[in-house]
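Q: My labmate handed me this sequence with no annotations at all. I'd like to see what the chain might look like in three dimensions before we decide whether it's worth expressing. Could you predict it?
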Amino acid sequence: MDQELMLNFLEAYEFIDNHPAFVGPIFNGVSSLTTLVYACCKRGKGESDAISLYPEDKRFSEFADKEEKEYVLVSYEDYYGEEWKFDHVEVLVEGGANVFKPGSDTTDIWAWDRYHDLDLNCSGRSYEEAIINFSNKVKAIYGDYSSEIHSENSIIPEWIREHNKENPIVKDINDIFKDGRININDKYISLRDEEINAIWWDVYKKNHGGKMGQETINITRFLNKENYESHNGTINSEN
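A: Here is what I predict for the chain of 239 residues:
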């Protein structure tokens, strides 16, 4: 593997792993994806793959009978006029967004649903290429976002990021432990996975033509400081 491919793969892998669409307790990031390996011919078709033709396809009438149909399936040999022959192996990657089911117990690891988004399906001549291609589709369809608060493309609202800069999770590194526990700054705003995921769903539906009308938990209080204070009390940043 050449160095450029390795670096592109690393970037793609980390992007998927940190994307807010794929957060969750068990099936998260790259581990939430399904990977399939199959033999292909020179045209990238599997031996058992049939070609789907729809009325708008130029060759639809050639294979459709008189009975009206929404689509027809045609064998490789009939469509291309040649026998299928093995040429190479391809890796197929499938996946989709996670979503926390409203009203569920936040400690229940099975309180999450996973989608299989056909628009994200992609393949490559290697696992690395397939992950890179999947990452590119995620960026185009789900947006260039990260669940990490310190990332430039963080999905976490800017007002929270600015607030937490002034109110770090630990006030004083020399006072990190207190009474046998980590001394967390009570002014620091920490978001759970399901909240980060719901914020992404809100952005996805508004800005990316989100086609999945999935119900999510209410994240109104995180959208601006005024909403947060009305739900949680004052959060002034004075030390």
